Amino acid sequence: MMKIVVAGNGMVGQKLLEEIASQPDIEVTVLCEEPRAAYDRVHLSEFFSGKTAEDLSLVSEGFFDQPNLNLKLNTKAVSVDAAAKTVSTADGQEIAYDKLVLATGSYPFVPPVPGRDRGGCMVYRTIEDLEAMKAWGAKSRKGVVVGGGLLGLECAKALKDMGLETHVVEFAPRLMTMQVDDMGGALLRKKIEALGVKVHTQKNTLEIVEGAGVGIGGRHVMKFADGGQLETDMIVFSAGIRPRDELARLSGLKMGERGGIVVNNYCQTSDPDVYAIGECALWEGRIFGLVAPGYDMARICAQHLMGQAAAEFTGADMSTKLKLLGVDVASIGDAQGSTPGALTYVFSDGVAGHYKKLVVSQDNTTLLGAVLVGEAEDYGSLLQMALNKIPLPEHPDELILPAREGGSKAGLGVDVLPASALICSCNNVTKGDLCTAVEGGATSLGALKKCTKAATSCGGCQPLVKQVLDAELTRSGVLVLNHICEHFEHSRQELFHLIKVGQFDNFDDVLLKHGKGRGCDICKPTVASILASQRNEFVLKPKLASTQDTNDYYLANLQKDGTYSVVPRVPGGEITPEKLMVLGSVAQRYGLYTKITGGQRIDLFGARVEQLPLIWKELIDAGFESGHAYGKALRTVKSCVGSTWCRYGVQDSVKMAIYVEERYRGMRSPHKVKMAISGCTRECAEAQSKDVGVIATEKGWNLYVGGNGGMKPRHANLLASDIDDETLIRYIDRFLMLYVRTGDRLQRTSVWLENLEGGIDYVKKVVCEDSLGIGAELECEMQKLVDTYECEWKKAVNTPETLKRFRHFVNSQESDQNIQFVDERGQIRPMNKDEKLAAEKVS
Amino acid sequence: MTVEPKWTLVCGLQDIVPNTGVCAKVGKTQVAVFRLVTPNGEEDGVYAIDNFDPRSGANVLSRGLVGDMENEMVVASPVYKNHIVLKTGRCVEGEEWSVKSHPVRVSEDGIVLVRTG
Lengths: 843, 117
Fold this sequence. Notes:
The complex is a heterodimer of chains A (843) and B (117).
Chain A: E1 2-7, H1 11-20, E2 26-31, H2 53-56, E3 69-72, E4 77-81, E5 86-89, E6 94-96, E7 99-102, E8 106-108, E9 121-123, H3 127-138, E10 142-146, H4 150-161, E11 165-169, H5 182-194, E12 198-200, E13 205-210, E14 220-224, E15 229-232, E16 234-237, E17 241-243, H6 246-250, E18 261-263, E19 274-276, E20 281-283, H7 291-305, E21 320-324, E22 327-333, E23 343-349, E24 354-360, E25 367-373, H8 379-387, E26 422-424, E27 429-430, H9 431-439, H10 445-452, H11 462-475, H12 492-502, H13 507-514, H14 523-535, H15 542-545, H16 550-554, E28 557-558, E29 564-566, H17 577-590, E30 593-596, E31 602-607, H18 612-621, E32 634-639, H19 653-664, E33 673-678, E34 692-696, E35 701-705, E36 717-723, H20 725-742, H21 749-755, H22 759-768, H23 775-787, H24 792-797, H25 800-803, E37 821-824, E38 827-830, H26 833-842
Helix pairs in contact in A: 1-7, 9-11, 12-14, 20-22, 20-23
Chain B: E1 8-12, E2 20-26, E3 29-37, E4 43-50, E5 52-53, E6 58-59, E7 65-69, E8 72-76, E9 83-85, E10 101-102, E11 104-106, E12 111-114
């Protein structure tokens, strides 16, 4: 039994544990100074946009229940006795080891400015730091981040998310000195300032002193070397990191001159039984402050620990792609062009706010580096090009110039990449690994991510992973074509567009113009749904009727025996006793089976086709309308009772649910849409499992999207917080219409969102920031549907030619004798086969 | 109008919405009768098969969507979406779900007639 002690349970330490946990004959003790196990520091700023510490956790359920793992939280390692092979902890424990791994990470560097320890001056590293920031943020109006690098800008976003007037103070002449050049830095600054963040460069802070402000508004004054000063309520230092190496230093391990624990290619320190990985390790004089190299070290260390043939650490590519305050920034390889003889290509679009630079070799054949600001879509392919030394095209500038109309962009397909090309550097997944997984049956993006872990950490490589998937599927002959069926060589999204542009109003014309053959049970309902989403005409109009799906065809839900079920709309689940009695008496009169649905309404089963109009008539006369339970359309808006009755409710969720349900009723979409509205954070309406979920807050509403119950449950994503009624409706309008326009056939919002490039961030941009400039258009399209809504049952009952459809025989008034019921628990149910045979014998 | 004794009158051709079906009672049998029209609006024949769908055990085939599949005109059962070739009654997804097809014609004055057996 080998005793391993791991000091530190950050991202890299946790990666190591994942690598070794399943090995036999080991016993691992993990010393974690923090009160919680590993969490995702890369996405730390999301703590301010609604994520909780649990959401950020990197530990899968039950991980530390494994008997060979012993996690000690709140336990800081303070010294190592290399001779005795023991580690001592702050609380006096002494733990023996055979092998020790130091994964102590780094600490934020705070410049030695007088006044840096005043209340409200803090750092940005742990969840506890974030909690302190939140606490101070609540009593501040203005906040300053010291440091305009990657972490500093992340931190600025956090301050901005808290609603503070946000300032960034940077010592260097530009933002992100390490990653971008002057022009890129200038554009980044412009974009960030446009978002309301004030940037101060070339500022050397001399001291921080007591401000004149009483309470909120100028607790501190920062005094700069150039004579300027800045008042603020709180200050967050984010001016770089330093390795946490004091444990190693005290233990006599070899250290770098400026800190860091010296390691060899196997991550061993000067004591071969002690390893160091991640940001505390110094390899060939370098500290790697990114997660991907840390993960690499963890893997190499794990193999070496276990005595396996280990790979060697050979340094790491420090290319990064980030979204800082909503601005895409990417930096590849030699971004500064410091290679001797390097040439550059620059493209700058001041209107769109894009800046792109390529650094190429002196002979113009290979890509050495790149800087992308404002738009970084090509990051993945440029990175691959640089890493794999793929020959540049004849005109390398085409790689960064926008595609002209009619032409497709040059650039490179994934086909030219070798199998060894590293696609996901966070999780060390190569193109070859992806291809093997696709061959093994992972044929969707979701499955591929799950199976290979690619694109599951920073997500930057997701577009590339998708490209590899598509290329691989096409190559292996799988029909990836997103063509909806053999009759149309178009995806649903393309068809939606074609139908809109061509102003079509029926299936045949669309087929003649854009399709072939006669259509089928796939494309007909798809086109019918698109037409309904755009024109909202009565679905049983003669030209449209023959293209409707089974249930739309009869405005009711077909059951296994050929009967139908009827669901009237009960907006928000609120119903008067009088209406309840009507439902009861209708069910009684027609002998229907009744059941309460999951969506807070009542389903009436066992109606024969000829009974449907009669039942509808009675329901309509009592004030009911169609519930569209039969349509790929809005179903219900579930609600809790809200602030009118509930002791805890903070908003009137029932009122809002009724408003929302009546607004979107009848809206046809790629698949059914369910919504819910909860009156407080107790979430009794289960809104986070709905396509659109709304949860009341003290200040307004939180809007969630993309949730699902059912076969593949998915928690919804937060789209916007604390918004007012009007904004809520505007965002729902936009979100739904975006889904209606771009969703695939029978694709729920959850799957749509998962497959959408850019995911929830993209949707946020389009819906909340109107990044595509289509917000008003989407709202207008939705308003048209709202204005043209008509109850389909009422329309059917009042249209004689439609009514003709509602009989079983065209040449007889008889009913279908094959439909037979038996009693069970006081209600009807369809007879099964044996019961029918028995009944026949008797007669 | 001459009606041969064996033929059962279903309805007028115009009573069937193009590219949909109706169910006719022909003796004791339920027959699904479909009227096909091309996208250009030309009449493309009338077809008759059993209305009974062996897969679901329900009389529903007349309510299915029609279309073409591998160059044959088919109807998709509204219950489990298995496809029946209109000309022959063969089920594309499995012989056990195939049904009978029936002779059908349209008289000169536009009446649809079906014969079973």
